[in-house]
Amino acid sequence: MFGSEANQEAERCWHRSERRTTRGAMTSPRLNQTVAFLGAGNMAGALIRGLLASGALLPSEILCTDVRKPRLEELKTKYGVEGLTSNEEAARRANVVVLSTKPQVFDRLLPEVSRGIRGDSLVVSIAAGIPVSAIEAHLPEGTRVVRTMPNTPAIVDAGATAIARGTHATDEDIELCTAIFESVGRVVVLDEYLLDAVTGLSGSGPAYIFLIIEALADAGVKVGLHRESALLLAAQTVLGSAKLLLETGEHPGKLKDMVTSPGGTAIAGLHTLEAGGLRTTLINAVETATARAKQLGEEMGKKLEKK
Ligand SMILES: NC(=O)c1ccc[n+]([C@@H]2O[C@H](COP(=O)([O-])OP(=O)(O)OC[C@H]3O[C@@H](n4cnc5c(N)ncnc54)[C@H](OP(=O)(O)O)[C@@H]3O)[C@@H](O)[C@H]2O)c1
After folding, report:
1. Cα Rg of the chain (Å, integer)
2. Closest by alpha carbon to 136, among 161, 165, 162?
3. Ligand 1 pocket test: which of 66, 74, 187 has the largest number of ligand atoms within 8 Å of its C-beta?
4. Which CATH number goes with the domain that contains 213?
5. For residue 303, is it within any domain?
6. 13, part of any domain
7. DSSP 3-state assignment of 224?
């Protein structure tokens, strides 16, 4: 899917995801699946919490594995979900298997999944950079795989996730994955070739925004505010501006114009930002991060091919 077709698909997803505007206001339909998270770290923890809070899954429908037993105990105490130390067993007992370890251990993880997985299971990868083809090559022929790229605001239900279909995944698989990731934020469905760009934008984006918030807070201190007030005002301004844009659906340029009165303060500040090349700097940052994601993905794909 290319060009305007891809844009139309993204647009459809935008609108589908739009119904979630504020956290907690929405409950999800029950998914009626058994989902295993292999690697119970930050991202898996965020998804488990989101899926339970939205009512999409029950604790008895979630399994997780980790090499760290205390983490499994923590998740059991917090959410009532079962923890296992065998990836193979978890894969055998689930019909949705989420690969949520770091990409670096996929060479050990995939053979374990392959031994356990059932013929009718869906495999969902959240690992940055690992191509669908490399995952499919290590699983039984015909396994349905979906690759995703979430981001850390999923931890507070404000994630942005892109989902890409593998060779054998069905429309129903995409619907299911969309429901899973909508439990922690917003979702777009894209072709896999765009996931490096997603990594460069929304995957790495929280780092850019934290830098911007920190810089704005420094600026507030420079003009006389206390650090604490400056940080709160900076962070809330970023949050509120994003919320205003998402909830009104207005073009950012129009919302910017609403703040810029003739001869006023905002236009004076904007002039300085343009003179400092902020727009170009952000474009360059996303472009560089996208290129780095592509490079890392190729390296990891090659490493897995050798196995
Ligand atoms: N964090 C992000 O911004 C972000 C964004 C998008 C996608 N992702 C992807 O999400 C995935 C998880 O990231 P994360 O931040 O949640 O990582 P994480 O917190 O490190 O979680 C991974 C967990 O898996 C455990 N583990 C290691 N080897 C294992 C094995 N063989 N079997 C079972 N568990 C194992 C790790 O234990 P040890 O710590 O002891 O190794 C850790 O507890 C990564 O693939 C990453 O690329 C992350």
Report:
1. 21
2. 165
3. 66
4. 1.10.3730.10
5. no
6. yes
7. coil
Dist. CA 100 → ligand 1 center (Å): 6
Residue 126: CB within 6 Å of ligand 1?
yes
Q: Could you tell me if 134 and 261 lie in one domain?
A: no
31-69 pLDDT tens trace: 999 999 999 999 999 999 999 999 999 999 999 999 999
User: Is the distance from the beta carbon of residue 109 to the nearest atom of ligand 1 less than 6 Å?
Assistant: yes
**For residue 220, what pLDDT is reported?**
98
Q: Is residue 293 part of a domain?
A: no
* Residue 306 placed within a domain: no
CB 151 within 8 A of CB 202: yes
Full-model pTM:
0.90
pLDDT in tens, 63-95: 999 999 999 999 999 999 999 999 999 999 999
Helices (H), 19-117: 42-53, 69-79, 87-93, 106-116
Q: How many CB atoms lie within 10 A of CB 24?
A: 8
For ligand 1, whether the C-beta of 183 sits within 6 Å is: no
> What is the domain extent for residue 103?
3-195
